[in-house]
Amino acid sequence: MAIVSGFASSPPSDRKLDMKCIFKCLGFIMLCVGLAGCGGGDAQEQAEVRVALALSNLRNPFFQELRDGALAEAAKQGVALTVLDAGDDPARQSEQIAALAKRRVAVILLNPVGAQAVTAAVRQAVAGGVKVVSLDRSLHGEPLSSHIESDNIAGGMLVGQYLMSRLGARGRIAELTGTAGSSVAHDRDAGLRQALSGHADAALLTRRGADFDRGKGQREMASLLRQYPDIRAVFAQNDEMALGAVAALRHAGRRNVAVVGFDAIPEAVAAVKAGELAATVRQQPGLMGRYGIQAAKRLAAGQGVDTYIAVPLKLITQADH
């Protein structure tokens, strides 16, 4: 109102000057607003949480489900997520971690190829200020921000208890183990042994490494049948190896060997329903991925997270169908 009043009382020659001043002032104000808007956009981009999910092997359906859960939660939380696959190659995963550290991602959600194979790269990333959360498999001796996993010792115990109840105390059992040196392989074996320790007549005949791989599981199962014709049960530390074992048994015409897997991937659940697989342990990899993103967002914001986050497990048998 003051400007309008002043304009009305000004002589015509001054009105042009007043108009020029007004337009200059308005232009200046609009420029300031525009710059403020641009600055807000830059701040928004800078505030975007950048997280990487570095997985050991995306050919495994378990890790595909983990990835999908992480992607869904990242979209929900407004997190920019990069997914990397090491193809079970520790050297490749070490290179990926080093590259992520240079890109200064806020958090790396890491499913390591082995418990020790990538520790040097992780140590350098942490020293550079990157937060690292391990998923499903832990790293030996590395003080990470958090570890998220199924309780694999409890899972191995579930399997052992189930086999003892199914076979009786005199069960003759073999074990197909995963990647040598991985925490998952170690803990599932420890749980199985703990469950069997209370049964003096139960025999864990042998442990055969099959690297969580279906083809290797099939080959090792065929070898076990030749060496231990009286074998009554097999615990395969993941469903891929379990399905390989089932294929070997089918080829040999053997129907009297109970095979238990781990992960409850859809194909394994279908095999349980069909009576080909005795049981599998249901993990929740999608939930594991979601927990990882939630933890990453808190860490990026400078908030604390639990150093250990457990994801529930359940034994799936034909009785569940």
At the fourth CATH level, what is the homologous superfamily of the largest domain? Response regulator
Main sheet overview: 6 strands, parallel
Radius of gyration: 29 Å
Query: What count of helical segments does DSSP give?
Result: 11
Keywords: Signal
Family: Belongs to the bacterial solute-binding protein 2 family.
InterPro entries: Peripla_BP_I, SBP_2_dom
Subcellular location: Cell envelope
Describe the structure in your own words.
The protein is an alpha/beta fold and 321 residues long. It folds into 2 domains: 127 residues, Rossmann fold (3-Layer(aba) Sandwich); 131 residues, Rossmann fold (3-Layer(aba) Sandwich). It has 11 helices and 12 strands. Strands 2-1-3-4-5-11 form a 6-stranded parallel sheet, with helices on both faces. Strands 7-6-8-9-10-12 form a 6-stranded mixed sheet, with helices on both faces. The radius of gyration is 29 Å and the shape is elongated. The N terminus is likely disordered.
